[in-house]
Write a structure and sequence with these properties.
96 residues, mainly alpha, 4 helices, 81% helix, transmembrane helix, transmembrane, membrane
């Protein structure tokens, strides 16, 4: 593949036209059809892969949490961290 890319950069349009003209007429027609067919099939395969990727991400997004996390201020975080400790104190005091 890399060699073909390098060759396309080295060959001038005049050289390419001369090469195609040197081919038999049936091969010239087949070459044009081949190039059209390969470009169309490559585009179709690319679009199919994009569609599969989109469907996969849509499916995976259904497993995301349903609620949105909210930002908490540092004061709220301290209060949230202290609450479980108070609950434990109440439970242990009642168990005595």
């Amino acid at each position: 593949m890399v060699l073909l890319e390098d060759a396309s950069k080295v060959v001038t349009p005049q050289e390419q036209a001369a090469f195609v003209a040197s081919l038999p007429p049936d091969v010239q027609a087949g070459l044009a059809r081949l190039l059209d067919t390969t470009m169309i099939s490559a585009q179709q395969e690319t679009l199919l892969l994009i569609m599969l990727f989109l469907l996969a991400t849509l499916l995976l997004s259904s497993f995301l949490p349903k609620h949105q996390l909210r930002e908490t201020s540092p004061d709220e975080q301290v209060e949230l961290e202290e609450e479980p400790a108070r609950d434990r104190d109440v439970r242990t005091a009642g168990d005595d």
